[in-house]
Specification:
Layout (H helix, E strand, L loop, with lengths): L2 H21 L3 E11 L2 E12 L2 E9 L2 E2 L2 H19 L3 H28 E11 L2 E10 L16 E8 L5 E8 L3 E3 L4 E3 L4 E10 L2 E15 L2 E16 L3 H7 L3
Length: 253
């Protein structure tokens, strides 16, 4: 396959990924987080739903055990209080909350979007991943890439692979890893080799695909101190929510 066809695969997959990102706030889901820090692992499970245009995480389990009755009742009460609070917000309070949510969404999306500008892609062949036939693309840093901000600067030291569904041109899996240290800020922090992330997606409805798994492992040096952490998240039970405000938010660029 020629370079132009590889570029077409990338461009079509980016267009679909942007459509997925736009649609994402229209869905509620269950999120299971496994966080490892300083050698200690904690697992928490949440029901995530949209309330008045931004998400709310209701804790439903810790270390894969349902909450005790009393704690479950308190979480249900917290959800009711938060729902009531948001419905009574002033226009300025609502705008502030939604603006913060939109900024967080754009920040999360920026790294994935910038990958298309930061890397050169080559086709390695085809493989089956999670039951889907995929194009396999290798990604290497593009020498001419200029990061937009501090968060995307890490892409200068990363390489990875992308598995794109051959039928729907959706990202089935993306993996990237840091292979050389990258300075963040005024050389105060360095992201070290061994830092990596993996994203997996699954079809939800029509040609909308949403994340099913996201994992990160971070190794960094801050001043003279080294730190390491890992976060592994799975997303299940996607269901459409009827929320006009969330639909409006999803149309924001």
């Amino acid at each position: 396959m020629g370079a132009s066809n590889v570029q077409e695969i990338v461009q079509r997959s980016v267009q679909n990924t942007n459509a997925d990102w736009t649609a994402a706030p229209e869905y509620a889901f269950t999120e299971r987080d496994v966080i490892t820090k300083h050698g200690k692992q904690t697992t928490k499970t949440y029901q995530v739903t949209m309330i008045e245009g931004s998400p709310y995480n209701k804790l439903i389990a810790i270390n894969d055990e349902p909450l005790p009755v009393g704690q479950a009742d308190e979480e249900a009460a917290k959800l009711r209080r938060e729902t009531d609070r948001r419905r009574k917000e002033t226009a300025s309070e609502s705008k502030k909350r939604l603006t913060k949510y939109q900024a967080e969404r754009r920040q999360d999306h920026a790294l994935m979007s910038e990958m298309m500008k930061a890397f050169d892609f080559t086709l390695r062949g085809q493989e089956t991943v999670n039951g889907r036939r995929c194009f396999v693309l290798a990604a290497t840093p593009r020498a001419s890439y200029q990061p937009k901000n501090r968060d995307t600067k890490v892409l200068k030291g990363m390489r990875g692979e992308m598995w794109v569904d051959v039928e729907q041109y959706q990202w089935v899996k993306v993996h990237a890893e840091v292979f050389q240290p990258v300075a963040i800020g005024l050389f105060v922090a360095h992201v070290q080799p061994g830092t990596e992330f993996t994203l997996e997606q699954t079809p939800i409805q029509n040609n909308i695909w949403l994340p099913s798994h996201f994992s990160t492992r971070v190794k960094a040096t801050v001043l003279l101190f080294s730190t390491a952490s890992a976060d592994d998240e799975t997303y299940t039970n996607y269901r459409r929510v009827d929320n006009q405000k969330s639909a409006k938010v999803s149309q924001k660029p």
